[in-house]
Amino acid sequence: MIRKKEFKSIWVIGIVLFQLLPIGIIVFFAFGFRNYSDQEGWMFNVEKDCKVYTHSNFQNRHFNWNGLCENGFAQGQGRLIVYEGRRQLYQFEGELQDGRIEGNGKWLILSDGNYYEGAFKNGRLHGLGHYYNDDGDHYEGFYENGLKSGWGTYWYPPESLKLKYEGQWKNNLENGEGRIFYRNGKITSGVFEMGKLQSTIRKIQQPVKTKVPKNILITNDDGVEDLNRLKCLAEKVSQFADVVVVAVSNQNRSGTSNNMIMAKQGYINVKCLSADSSKQIFIYEVQGYPADCVIWAGLGFFQKIGKNIDLVLSGINGGPNIGVEWFGSGTIGAARTAALAGIPAIAISGIDEDKESSENLERICNWVAAMAQTPLVGQMKAFEYLTVSIPEDLDEIKGTKFLERAVSFNNPPFYLENKTGDGKIGEASTWVLKEGDPAAIYDPSAVNDVNFYSDNYIVIVPMSVNENNLGSLPRYKKLKATLPSIN
Questions:
Q1: At what angle do helices 358-371 and 227-237 cross, to 10 degrees?
Q2: In Å, how far from its chain's centre is CA 318?
Q3: Among the four residues 19, 304, 363, 478, which has the most C-beta atoms within 10 Å?
Q4: Which of 229, 455, 184 is nearest to 349 (CA)?
Q5: Preceding amide of 309 cis, omega within 30
Q6: 82-101, pLDDT tens digit by residue?
Q7: 214: three-class secondary structure by DSSP
C-alpha cells in the first residue's frame, strides 16, 4: 500500500519527468542528427585524391567512383555511390564533369528505393526526366534546379482517388493550366496557382507531345579533317538515342550548299570507319557532299535497318553561319536537304577553329544534346529547320535570341579582284574572290542575327524550305493582264 507521502513524491517525480520529456526528445534528435547539415561543398573518396560536389552535408559524406579522376575531380562516364557515414545514400550512373553531375543519367536513392532517370545540371534534376517513388506515384516531365517546373504529368499513389495530374508546374507545385484525372473517370480542368485550383475551365489547349529523337544522323561540311567534333556530338546524343550515324564527306565541302554528286553520277561510294555496337554509333565516310550524306543515310543506312531518321544535326561547323552565309553553307545545305524530306534538322555553327579546345567542344556538345531533347526540337513541323550560331567566347555569352536572318546587305560581302588578263576577245582572265569589309556589310542598327551574334548572343533562326512568296501572289495575279501574248 502506497502511503500518502510516498504518493505525493511519485506525483512530483512524474511531473518533473513529463516536463523533461520534450527536452529529452530535442536532445535525442539533436544527437541523432549531429552529423547532418544543409551545407554544400566537395566530398572526397576514401583515398582523398578525388572529389565530387554535393548540395548537402558534404562534411559527412564520401563516395566511391569507378570512372576517371582528372586533376582531382571525378570525370566522364561511370558509377558513383555516395555514403553518409557508413550508410549508402544514393547511386548515380552517368556523366560527371569536373566533379559535378551533368547530362543524362540514372539516380537511385538507396535509402528508400526512389529512382530518377533523365537530365541533370550541376548535380540537380534539370530538364526532362522521369521520377519513380517507391510508394507507386511517379512524375514525368520537366525540372528546373531540382524542382518540377514546366509541363509534366504526375501519377498519384494507387490508394488515391486521383489517377494523375497533367499540366504546368512551378517549384514542385501545380501552377498554370492543368487537368486532374480521377479513377472514376471524372476530369477537372482548370487554372492552378501554387498547388491550388483557382478556377475551372471547360476546355484547355492540349499540349503537343514532345518526341525525343531516337534515330539521329550527324553530318558536316568540314569533312573528315574535323571528325572529332562529330564524334563528340555522337557520344552525347547516344545517351538518349537508339541509333546514331555519323556520315562525313571525304573532304572539306564548305560553301557547297545542297549540291549532290549522287544526282550527277547516279551512285555514291561509302566507307565504314567504325561501328560501336554497344553505343549504336556508326561512322561512315561518304565520297560526296553534305547533302549526299543525308540522302545516303536516309535512303541507305536507316532504310536498310527498317528505321526513319528522327533528327539531323549538321555541324558543329567552324565559324558562324549568319546573315547571307546560309545561301552557300554546306552545313546549312545538309539541314535544308533533310527538311525537304520532312526530317527535323538543325545546323550548328560557331566553334573557333583557330582556338578550338576540348573543354569548349565538350560544352557545346552537351548543350546541343540537351537542346535536342526539348520541345523546341520535338515539336518542329515538317519542312522546317533551325540554324544555330554560337559565339566563340562561351564565357561571354549573354543568352539566346530567336531572330530573323539578315538577308540583305548595305555593301557586298565579297568583291572580285582581276589578277590576270584584261578581257580581250579570246584571252582568258583570272578573278580572285576577296572578303569585303565586315563592318560595312550589314546595317549596324538592324534587329537581325548578325548584330545579336556580334553582341555575344546564341542566335537561333527558324527556316523553311518553302520559299513560296505567298504574300505577293495576289499582287502578281492582278498583273496577269499586263503580260504579252506569244504570237
A1: 40
A2: 20
A3: 363
A4: 229
A5: no
A6: 998 888 889 999 999 999 99
A7: coil
* Structural domains of the chain, ranges and CATH numbers in brackets: 41-200 (2.20.110.10), 215-417+441-470 (3.40.1210.10)
CB atoms within 10 A of CB 342: 13
Instruction: Return the SS3 of 26.
Output: helix
Helix ranges, 33-180 (H): none
Residue type, 482: T
Cell 588578263, located at residue: 421
Contact 384, 336 (CB under 8 A): no
Residue 324's Cβ-side half-sphere holds a number of Cα atoms within 13 Å equal to 11
Kindly report the number of other CB atoms within 10 A of residue 159's CB atom. 8
Q: What are the residue ranges of helices labelled H in 298-351?
A: 302-304, 330-340
Q: Which residues pair with 44 in a beta bridge?
A: 51, 62
- Neighbouring CB atoms inside 10 A of 144's CB total 16
The per-residue pLDDT for range 290-347, each reduced to its tens digit, is 999 999 999 999 998 889 999 999 989 888 888 887 788 999 999 999 999 999 999 9
Cα(367)–Cα(340) distance, integer angstroms = 26
Q: Report the DSSP pairing between strands 41-45 and 196-200.
A: unpaired
Q: Are 101 and 123 in contact (CB under 8 A)?
A: yes
CA 456 from centroid of its chain's CA atoms: 20
